[in-house]
């Protein structure tokens, strides 16, 4: 198993530090949830880039302002997810592109968000892997880089990348299965 | 999550590409500057002379309001004033 050398702070740690005015913690929190917010806006709600950028900034501004109202520091992920969903709907309503909330499109968005929740769980496991695996999996799957580009950037033979990806996916799977076995059942009402 | 085969893991990883770097930087910087920038824009809306001085030198106006005029903050103020 390839394990990360540096231990990432938990969501709850980051939130607690943000509340104390820790600027570095805020920067880290934005980085941690930036992909999630971006994906909800552009994939679940299919907002064009310009609108997605407005929503993205709105979500993090509101997160910053309302962090004190978060009931449980551990619940930051569903809280930000719900906040992003609401900001997207507000944006669509303001632009006149939807009128009702419970439209089929809205249910489709909820389904897409559920899938993104699954994706972010995988992403969290990715952060537990060592740098070598994090880099190669992120570049190949998330940044859509070719074997050649990855090889050049990481200084490894392109011919070994496929086997490295396969090995790292195995580590990722092991981490996920370990986490699933240890995780308590999730629950929780989210208020934004 | 039920299965963790390679294909499924790959599909899920692909769902979370990085957000544009400029958006992330802005999200890190803007909430901290928001109150001061909002006050600045509010005053500029009712005071034409003040607005002219702000538009003439955005960086100085931002600095005078107590905020570091990073490119992201300057661009955001420019956008707010153009609305």
Which key phrases capture this entry?
heterodimer; A: 192 residues; mainly alpha; 8 helices; globular; disordered N terminus; disordered C terminus; B: 83 residues; 76% helix; 0% strand; rod-shaped
Could you walk me through the main structural features you see in this protein, from its secondary elements to its overall organization?
- The complex is a heterodimer of chains A (192) and B (83).
- By secondary structure, chain A is mostly helical.
- Chain A contains 8 helices and no strands.
- Chain A starts with 10 loop residues before the first helix and ends in a 10-residue tail after the last helix.
- The N terminus and C terminus of chain A are likely disordered.
- Classes of the chains: A mainly alpha (192), B mainly alpha (83).
- At the A-B interface, helix 2, helix 3, helix 5, helix 6 and helix 8 of A face helix 1 and helix 2 of B.
Radius of gyration of chain A: 18 Å
- Computed CA radius of gyration of chain B, to the nearest angstrom: 20 Å
The SSE string of chain A, one letter per element, is HHHHHHHH
**What is the 3D shape of chain A?**
globular
Greatest interface by residues involved: A-B, 42 and 23 residues
Helix content of chain A: over 70%
Number of helix segments of chain B? 5
How many separate helices of chain A?
8
Taking the alpha carbons of the first and last residues of chain A, their distance comes to 39 Å
Helix content of chain B: over 70%
- Number of self-contained structural domains of chain B: 1
How many individual β-strands of chain A? Answer: 0
Q: Main β-sheet of chain B: number of strands, strand sense, barrel status?
A: none
Q: How many DSSP E strands of chain B? A: 0
Mean pLDDT of chain B: 89
Q: Structural class of chain A, please?
A: mainly alpha
């Amino acid at each position: 198993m390839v394990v990360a050398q540096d231990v990432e702070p938990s969501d709850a740690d980051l939130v607690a530090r943000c509340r104390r005015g820790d600027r570095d913690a805020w920067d880290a929190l934005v980085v941690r949830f930036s992909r999630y917010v971006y994906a909800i806006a552009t994939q679940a709600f299919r907002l064009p880039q310009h609108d997605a950028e407005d929503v993205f900034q709105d979500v993090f501004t509101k997160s910053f302002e309302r962090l004190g109202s978060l009931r449980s520091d551990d619940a930051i992920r569903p809280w930000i997810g719900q906040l992003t969903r609401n900001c997207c709907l507000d944006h669509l309503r303001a632009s006149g592109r939807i009128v009702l909330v419970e439209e089929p499109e809205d249910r489709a968005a909820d389904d897409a968000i559920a899938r993104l929740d699954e994706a972010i769980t995988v992403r969290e496991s990715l952060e537990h892997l060592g740098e070598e695996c994090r880099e190669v999996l992120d570049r190949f799957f998330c940044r859509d880089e070719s074997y050649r580009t990855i090889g050049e950037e990481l200084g490894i033979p392109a011919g070994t990348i496929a086997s490295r990806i396969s090995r790292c996916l195995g580590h990722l799977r092991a981490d996920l299965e370990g986490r699933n076995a240890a995780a308590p059942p999730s629950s929780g009402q989210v208020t934004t | 999550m039920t299965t963790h085969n390679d294909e499924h893991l790959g599909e899920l990883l692909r769902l979370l590409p990085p957000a544009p770097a400029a958006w992330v930087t802005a999200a890190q910087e803007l909430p901290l500057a928001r109150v001061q920038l909002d006050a600045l824009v509010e005053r500029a809306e009712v005071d034409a002379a003040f607005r002219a001085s702000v538009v003439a030198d955005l960086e100085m106006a931002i600095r005078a309001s107590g905020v570091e005029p990073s490119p992201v903050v300057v661009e955001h103020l420019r956008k707010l004033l153009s609305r």
